[in-house]
């Protein structure tokens, strides 16, 4: 039996399939046009890459600037902006003939004003140290009078009883007008006793103890020896005692 001849099937080209191919394959373009299109896409990719590189470099520079800035730089900027805004509003109020302090308080909440006043009072230092004996005496007087809790009824009664002599002036006779009560004298005695006890408890810190052993050559060496004693004194006590007694092995 003779073998049947093989006949290859014919492939029908479809215009629709060619149009559905991706990219430039589905377009009816010449080779030169396809090359130009590919070069255009390549140039676009280069431009996008350069733009991304530029933005990345800007972010790196900005991050490096933020790292080198002080930690409170943001707070300082906000403070500077607030000062500039406040100066502008102050100049505007002065130009309109208004009181800046009153206008400022009108635009401020009650809790904010209270917090601002509290911060101002906390920055005030009532004790500025010794400047003169007069100032020291005044501070002592202010501290003592602050502790007094007056009885206003007794005050008004004594003022009515003394008359003009209550507020004595030059030439006013005050002898025999006022007599201290036993309660007031007792209160004054107790206050004097408290001041005496407070002075006895007061002790100024001395930098140098004349009774201590001198085991240093200068102040820096003294500090170093004190640190050694603080950290290792409990472990080296027996060795030091033996060296002082002469019984060290």
What does this 3D model show about the protein?
This protein has 249 residues and is mostly helical. Helices cover 64% and strands 0% of the residues. The protein contains nine helices and no strands. It has helices at 15-19, 31-68, 73-95, 100-106, 110-123, 133-146, 152-162, 182-201, 219-245. The longest helix is centred in the N-terminal third of the chain and has 38 residues, at 31-68. The chain is flat, with a radius of gyration of 47 Å. The termini are far apart.
Summarize the structure.
This protein has helices at 15-19, 31-68, 73-95, 100-106, 110-123, 133-146, 152-162, 182-201, 219-245. With 249 residues, the protein is mostly helical.
The radius of gyration over CA amounts to: 47 Å
Care to count the β-strands? Answer: 0
The end-to-end span amounts to 125 Å
Q: What spatial form do the alpha-carbon principal axes imply?
A: flat
Q: Would you tell me the overall average pLDDT?
A: 80
Runs in which pLDDT lies below 50 for 5 or more consecutive residues are none
Helix and strand content put the structural class at: mainly alpha
Looking at how many chains there are and whether they match, the oligomeric state comes to: single chain
- Percentage of residues assigned to helices: 55-70%
What is the H-and-E element order? HHHHHHHHH
